[in-house]
Design brief:
The N terminus is likely disordered. The radius of gyration is 34 Å and the shape is globular. The protein is built from 14 helices and 31 strands. The protein is an alpha+beta fold and 775 residues long. It has a 14-stranded antiparallel beta barrel with strand order 16-17-18-19-20-21-22-25-26-27-28-29-30-31.
Length: 775
């Protein structure tokens, strides 16, 4: 205890000295008469409000004061220190400029503080929160070239609402407002609050916009506060239309004509008028049902607009359909800009025409993409795609995509001398902006549902062992409930795996090992798959999440109809290949926390299980789970970890094959920080493993059991990411901290770490080279 106490005292002494040195270093750079502003404090003098009200008011007032003092860390001002010690740069670039203006922070001086302005802010904010008789003063406390401003506030009693009246008259707009009063935000007994009043005005405006009052505005409403009709600090509110409200804002509008310009160009409009005549005779030749599509060159089928537009002739205007239509037009993917105008066509009947001005995107494009693959059923690693896209393939906003790709999983180091994985292939997809089915599918979402048809081929090469030819095809639907929720249903998803170029060396070993034999066996997999994705990572929030759940049902109906049962010697085949029958569930959950604009924490959990039955004794190799690699547990080479506590060192050193499992659990955590412009760094920890559902005599310890927690592998490392906007190159150096195939009680590897030993480095340090983030 004595030794720890001395260490603690030394730490405090060093910290105190460092604080003093840095603090004094900052003030010594000040000129004569200057004082470093260290911030403001608000004191509230009031005995009639609760402690919580005091605390909330104090926090809000301090948050509104300007300017903010220099940032601190552990009581120090390191950014200010860097600004002070850096020389004034001669150019707006270079090390000195970066240190002074990017890392450093300019000193905030007492002379920068407008104390009278802050006093007015305090009084105004207090009154806006119901403290009508607020008074404020300030005092400045200075010492050792540092100054703090202390504001004293006497807010008085807070006024409460004692009655809310809505103006009544016979006008249509007032009748509509009266129908909305039961949902008012202004409640008796609640404090007077200007922010709540503004929210009430917005609420009324939003509801009126849903009922045809297109030209209405929140500023047309005034809320008058009368404190003379009540006693004991009460206030009565009177909600009414302003006397100068424009007549147009009080009228309820409906849709007359709906006119679409799918090839809009700003040059088509001169002096506020369209170059194409808008009289009824000229429009008639462009009519399609109840809309007009001005498309003389017939680049688009009119029916796509009939599906996307939610306004029809005679409909009462409402904001929901207005926004829904714009978003659906954008989600078609063929228009770069979508603009909307409403022009009064009949002022007596209160009708206007709806114009949709659509600027097309480039119809065809060629793009190079760099991706990181994270699906555990696929080879983990990095992929380069060359994509060709046609966005209006049959003139109905159909997107046709064709791609060729090459991929790799490349790792250096590690205990096993494994071969790397190379993949190449091609795929095509036709995406139709509607549900093609024998039933009607109605979607009120702002996103257009799509029918997707895909075909693909992939060549997988495990050097010196075998190659696999994968043929895939699918037909299904993708639809979104909103920007956060997406559904992907493949009614039929077919995979045919055909091995080729199996080396004699591998075949000999496969004949003696059933698990290796299944790797190069022909596989026919078909059935429906469904995935649900939820994400709010696109929002500017401190905490965001991503979730994807997948259900894969292979051969279920076929197995039921044919009575397939491999355990009773009733294996069924199609084209001479046994079809696979299994159920597979996988969950991928991610959580992101943003500390600052340049630092964040990313975490991920993966949990999945695949269960074979009927026509299959085992889940097909290509659909099993794998662990290890650049997008998984990075301290272990790709697909070498597991299953369970199986020891890969028992395998013939000249043999290498992927270790697969029926169950997967994985947890990853990664701290990410920006170092300089395109250079990012990371510190990460990965944990997890895979297991089998049944015993395998060739892989002892592979079966999942109640002891599974003792078979969790753990790895950690550091990484660099070169973010070039169009390409993110990732370098992750990892080492194992816990190895599940070591003896029980000796699986943690901390005591074995020896960076000075070249053999240890060779066997334990794994360098992952990949493209994109791992998750």
């Amino acid at each position: 205890m004595s030794n720890k106490f001395h260490i603690y005292c030394k730490y405090l002494l060093v910290s105190g000295m460092a604080s003093t040195v840095v603090s004094c270093s900052n003030t010594r750079f000040l000129k004569e008469g200057q004082m470093l502003y260290t911030g403001a404090k608000v004191k509230i003098e009031n005995d009639t409000i609760s402690k919580k009200e005091k605390k909330d008011l104090q926090a809000a007032l301090e948050a509104n004061l300007t300017p903010k003092p220099n940032s601190t860390f552990l009581g120090l001002r390191p950014k200010l220190y860097f600004y002070n010690i850096a020389k004034e740069p001669k150019k707006d670039k270079g090390f000195n400029y970066w240190l002074k203006y990017k890392v450093g922070e300019k000193p905030v001086l007492l002379g920068d503080v407008d104390r009278e302005f802050n006093k007015d802010i305090i009084v105004n904010y207090s009154e806006n929160k119901g403290y009508f008789n607020a008074k404020a003063s300030y005092d400045t406390v200075s010492k050792n070239k540092k100054a703090q401003v202390i504001y004293t506030v006497k807010p008085g009693s807070r006024y409460l609402i004692d009655g809310v009246k809505f103006q009544k008259d016979s006008t249509l707009v007032n009748q509509e407002i009266q129908s909305l009063t039961d949902k008012t935000l202004l409640k008796n007994g609640r404090p007077f609050d200007l922010d709540v009043i503004k929210a009430e005005r917005d609420r009324i405006d939003n509801r009126l916009k849903e009922r045809g009052f297109y030209y209405f505005h929140p500023d047309n409403i005034i809320v008058q506060a009368d404190s003379t009709v009540s006693k004991n600090h009460k206030v009565e509110l009177n909600v009414k239309l302003k006397d100068n409200t424009p007549d147009l804002a009080t009228q309820q509008f409906s849709i007359d004509n709906v006119i679409v310009f799918p090839n809009y160009n700003i040059q088509d409009v001169k002096d506020g008028k369209y170059s194409i005549p808008m009289d009824k005779d000229s429009l008639s030749k462009y009519r399609f049902d109840d809309i007009y599509v001005i498309d003389p060159q017939h680049k688009f089928k009119p029916k796509i607009f009939d599906r996307a537009l939610y306004f029809k002739k005679g409909d009462l205007y409402n904001r929901s359909n207005h926004n829904l239509t714009l978003n659906r037009l954008i989600s078609l993917g063929v228009f770069k800009f979508v603009k909307n105008e409403f022009i009064v066509s009949d002022s007596l009947s209160h009708k206007f025409d709806a114009y949709y001005l659509l600027t097309p995107r480039q119809v065809q494009s060629l793009r190079l993409e760099a991706l990181g693959r994270t699906n555990s059923a696929n080879y983990a690693g990095s992929e380069l795609n060359l994509n060709w896209t046609h966005r209006n393939f049959f003139r109905g906003a159909e997107q046709f995509k064709a791609a060729i790709f090459g991929a790799f999983d490349f790792q250096m180091g590690g205990a096993q001398n494994a071969n790397n994985i190379f993949r190449a292939g091609t795929n095509v997809q036709l995406s139709i902006p509607r549900i093609v089915a024998p039933f009607r599918f109605h979607s009120s979402s702002e996103f257009v549902p799509r029918t997707n048809i895909t075909l693909g081929y992939e060549f997988q090469n495990r050097t010196q062992y075998y190659t696999l030819n994968n043929f895939t095809g699918s037909f299904g639907y993708v639809w979104k409930e909103n920007a956060r929720k997406e559904h992907d249903l493949k009614v039929i998803d077919i995979t045919l795996v055909s091995p080729a170029n199996v080396t004699e060396e591998y075949q000999i070993k496969a004949d003696a090992n059933p698990a290796m034999a299944r790797v190069v066996a022909k596989q026919l997999i078909f059935g429906p798959t469904y995935s649900y994705t939820y994400t709010n990572t696109m929002l500017p929030k401190t905490n965001t999440v991503y979730y994807k759940g997948t259900l894969d049902l292979a051969g279920n109906i076929t197995g039921l109809v044919t009575g397939a049962d491999v355990k009773k010697d009733k294996e069924k085949k199609i084209f001479g290949i046994p079809f696979s029958q299994y159920v597979k569930i996988e969950n991928d959950f991610r959580f992101y926390h943003k500390f600052t604009e340049k630092s964040s924490l990313a975490t991920r959990f993966i949990g999945g299980i695949a269960y074979p039955y009927g026509n299959s004794e085992f889940v097909p190799f290509s659909k099993q789970f794998f662990s290890g690699g650049s997008n998984s547990i990075r301290a272990f080479r790709a697909r070498t970890l597991g299953p369970g506590s199986f020891d890969p060192r028992t395998i013939d050193p000249g043999t290498y094959f992927d270790q697969s499992g029926d169950i997967k659990l994985e947890l990853n955590a990664e701290y990410r920080a920006n170092l300089y412009k395109f250079l990012n760094a990371a510190v990460f920890v990965d944990a997890g493993n895979i297991w089998l559902l049944h015993d395998d005599k060739d892989r002892p310890g592979a079966k999942f059991s109640k002891d599974f927690l003792n078979e969790i592998a753990v790895g950690a490392g550091v990484g660099l990411r070169l973010d070039f906007s169009i390409l993110i190159l990732r370098l992750d150096l990892a080492m194992p901290l816990r190895v599940p195939y070591y003896q029980k009680g000796d699986r943690w590897a901390f005591d074995k770490i020896n960076f000075g030993d070249s053999n240890w480095r060779k066997d334990n340090l794994v360098l992952n080279i990949a493209i994109g983030y791992p998750f």
